[in-house]
Amino acid sequence: MNDLPEFRKFGSIPRLKRGCVITEKIDGTNAQVHVTEDGRVLAGSRNRWLTVDDDNFGFAQWVQDNADQLRTTLGPGSHYGEWWGSGIQRRYGLAEKRFSLFNVGRWTGRMEGCCHVVPVLYSGEFSVQAVDNALLDLDEFGSMAAPGFRDPEGIVVRLSASGHLYKVTLDGDGHKFVNNKTGDTQHDRP
Q1: pTM of the entire structure?
Q2: Percent of the chain's residues with pLDDT above 90
């Protein structure tokens, strides 16, 4: 029996027809605020810790400037979100930068103070129709994160059973998004 290969168990398969949450995918830069148990407040990007001297679009400076409020509002742990707005990617017509948290299950709506939350476009049982409807709404009405901005990036779908995240963009998935109501492509929008 010693000559047998290591046994690898086949993992369980999450159910697809369960809940999902669809949020707006904001085009900025991935960011994180980490509050340590002893109350230190750190800034991070997708790949590294940031400092005021080695920053990412001013996020570390913003975290330093808002450390007391972030410590009190968010509490200990890692809090992931998007740093977006003026001077970052699509800019969204904003004169300022914003930090929007991803965890819509914990943070609902617009938070008081310095943080925002990514907008929920749909919450319910997963279906391709729900995904398509969320894309259609963004295409037709523009960004929910920055009302009036007509060129949103797309959506993020979180499947509740697996916890996996999936993105669908209006213009970057290798095809043009077609609004089935009007027949217009993403590039024909006003």
Answers
A1: 0.85
A2: 80
